[in-house]
Amino acid sequence: MVEGTTTHAVTSSDGQRTDGQRTDGEQADGQPADGTAAPAAPEKGTGLARASLLMAAGTMVSRATGLIRTTLQTSALGAGLLASSYGIANVVPMSIYTLLIGGALNSVLVPQLVRARAAHADGGRAFEQRLVTLVLSVLAVGTALAVWAAPGIVALYVPDTPKSHAAFELTVVFARFLLPQIFFYGLFFILGQVLNARSKFGAMMWTPVLNNLVLIAMFGLYMGLLAGPDRVQDITPGQIDLLGLATTGGIALQGLALIPFVRAAGFRFRPRFDWRGHGLRKSIVAARWTLLLVLANLAAMTVVSRFAAAADGQLPDASVGYAAYGNAQNIWNLPQSLVTVSLVTALLPRMSRAVADNRPDDLRDELSRALRVSGVLIVPAAFLFLALGPQIAQLLYGHGAMNATTVAPTGHMLQAFGLGLIPFSGQYLLLRGFYAFEDTRTPFWMAVGIAAVNIALAAACHVLLPVRWAVTGMAAAYAVAYGIGMLATALLLRRRLSGRLDGRRLCRTYGKLTASAAAAGALGWLVARACTGVPVPAGWTPALALAAGGGAMALAFVALARLLRTAELRSLPGLR
Fold first, then answer.
1. Which among 16, 40, 408, 453 has most CB atoms closer than 10 A?
2. CA 367/CA 509 separation, integer angstroms
3. Residue 571 in contact with residue 368, Cβ under 8 Å?
4. What end-to-end distance do the CA atoms of the chain give, in Å?
């Protein structure tokens, strides 16, 4: 699934230097004063550290406010059938955006924007204007068609049967409110990539906070002024209007907020429809494989969503389906968003330039360093979820419409996702090696393999496991699929890099990190378990268990990693 909706994003969502001294003829961002783009200078190591830390800070605030938002959302809507209707309608816009054009932006268009800025006489200004015009035109048409086709789109996720008809109809109503997000997602991401090509990363990481603040206010109002319904049939038109309008309004604000930043960076938008003969064909051809990759990912996500919605239909009040799966995945994605995505957003232009300059050793070094440094946080986070998933879910989501019984499936799903964070993060980084070569065909075949494994295992869980545990099994299936995918991707990239991927050093580092995190996780689990018998006020038990278990785990991990002489532990403050 896509983070946040899922991508996500993203990418879902799935996201993603130094500026030199300026002269009198330059703006503060190092661009010529007339607004034309200048080629980006090669970055220093300290520049990468500064860019990564700035993005990580913005992403951390965004994710923190996002957790507050999802906590309030779960408190207001629960994690049963009503929450699933809203959640599925909210994931559809990001899915369609990614299918239309979003998947191509990060993987294909950023390298070409960088090349256009370096190679074109006008610094790539006309290329940017044509590209932005093309993207927004495709999204405007796609958004209108999606709103018209809302019932058919929702039917892919929620079966329209007599038993589920009320939930289906509500999901369609929500979808018509939320599908205009497609255009504003596109506006946000294309303007963000214009900024990224200029090595301006901060705004894209900070503006999602505005969306979270809108939704925090909305769910606070929903709980404070309105009587929240317990069933799909009881929700009122006023409540639907509030949820639909505010949710889309937050995404619109997030996209529009980037306009002042791109203007300050020297970009001036002028619609240009002269698309033929100006290099956009290369972008479209390269994006073809990315579109197929997105289709493969969406196919797997749709199958899992449909199975999870079926679980909600069978146990509508047990919180064992789509909403619980999404809540667990949101928590699980947090380390990936804070660490890996921030690194990749700063690294992708550097890796693209390394390939353009025929410096494969530099590309290999960048990938190896990113994998090893990110692993220092990703590996212990994975074991934290495995050891303390129930306590984390109870602390975040065990409020309002939720209780200890209904929040338990979310904790178990978080544990099932747990260790899959390691290959998921590794796969994300390794694929950027292919994207730096503008190879989108290989990532497509990797996505097909991962999606096929995920679908097969999810189907087995749906058929063989009890309804209570079926979606938890699907979370584990997702982790297994990415483990297989990462191994295949590493072997193929190793071949692309002349048989060298710094594998020995990577295996040594990850071996030490895994041993340290596994032992620390066992200790954290024991400490948290011991805290369950401590007499504390009602509701404080999960907080005490998480604080004590997590603290013990952190101290043990650092001590063991130092004992094993894990050199990467010293690089946490930055990349030196």
1. 16
2. 14
3. no
4. 34
Measure the CA–CA gap between 78 and 406, rounded to whole angstroms.
9
Radius of gyration of the chain (CA): 23
Residues 444-482: b if buried by 16+ CB within 10 A, e if exposed: bbbbbbbbebbbebbeebbeeeebebbbbbbbbbbbbbb
d(CA 399, CA 71): 8
Domain boundaries, the chain: 61-278, 291-502
Using alpha carbons, select from 11, 46, 167, 82 the residue that is nearest to residue 573: 46
Look up residue 211 and give its two tokens.
Answer: 């969306």
Q: Which tens digits make up the pLDDT trace of 229-264? A: 657 777 888 889 999 999 999 999 999 999 999 888
CB-count exposure of residue 563 (10 Å: 0-12, 13-18, 19+): exposed
CA angle 206, 386, 324 (to 5 degrees): 65
What is the 3 state secondary structure string of 456-482?
HHHHHHHHHCCHHHHHHHHHHHHHHHH
**Helices of type H across 497-568:** 503-531, 541-563
Q: Which residues of the chain have pLDDT under 70?
A: 1-56, 102-124, 225-230, 273-287, 342-349, 538, 571-576
> In which residue are the tokens 């946000």 written?
188
From 85, 81, 83, select the one nearest 170 (Cα to Cα). Answer: 85
Token pair 């809507």 is at which residue?
A: 77
Query: Quick check: 455 and 397 in contact, CB under 8 A?
Result: no
The partner residues of 32 in beta bridges, in order of sequence, read 26
Query: Is the Cα torsion angle 40, 45, 48, 54 positive or negative in sign?
Result: negative
Cβ atoms of 136 and 193 within 8 Å: the answer is no
What is d(CA 222, CA 72) in angstroms, rounded to the nearest whole number? 10
Query: Is 421:385 a contact under the CB 8 Å cutoff?
Result: yes
pLDDT tens digit string along 427-461? 988 988 887 787 878 888 999 999 999 999 999 99
Q: Is 246 exposed, middle or buried (0-12, 13-18, 19+ CB in 10 A)?
A: middle
- Single-letter amino acid code for the residue at 421: L
Q: How many CA atoms lie within 13 A of 208 on its CB side?
A: 29
Looking at the DSSP assignment, which residues form a beta bridge with residue 26?
A: 32
Instruction: Convert 344-355 to b/e letters by CB count within 10 Å (16 or more is b).
Output: bbbbbbbbbbbb
Contact 197, 30 (CB under 8 A): no
Q: What is the DSSP letter of 375?
A: H
CB < 8 Å & 24+ apart, contacts of 150-153:
150/175, 150/176, 150/179, 153/92, 153/96
